[in-house]
Amino acid sequence: MEDKQIRYLDNVVELLVGDTIIDYNNDDVIEYSFTSIGLESTSLSLFLDYVLSFPYFSKYIRNVYGLIDQEIEYVWKKYKTIILDKGEKIHRERYLNKVVEFIIRDVIVEIDSSRIYFYLPHQRESFFSTPYPYTYPTVLSIPIYFVKYIKDMYELSNFEKNYVWGEFINKVDIKIVKTFVKDKKQKMSNDLF
To answer: What is the pTM of this model?
Structure first.
């Protein structure tokens, strides 16, 4: 295929992707426009199993864009890959957010007169601490104990470890600030989390 033709086919793919809406917060409902009656919606699993079948897709693309078999196959493969990747990324992000929730649930908090300490289960040394009275955490790198814990428990990539650490710090910050706002004397109990 020529460059001009590939650019046109890539534009068709972009249009199809743009017209496909996946609502991951609503039981993964997907809306798509390549039907004979216009916009339809279904579950993502049904979409991937039946709707995205090549004959169904092929008929729509041939009628609307006038593509030939080789072009339809190119558009179909590219579109399907993009939609599957989107679904995979969203589901992975959901999983990582659950990991953060589990870690927060497992964290043990202790306070002395000058610091707030955070411990992970079965560890004697805190993996993180912040001044008491509270100021926003200024840790620039992920503590080694935290990395080891999430590596052993969840087998995350480096990117995912950084994501989990960032979300963890944000959630810790929100919980601590809420606690201090509630208790003007700045006392916290071990049931912070």
So the answer is: 0.58
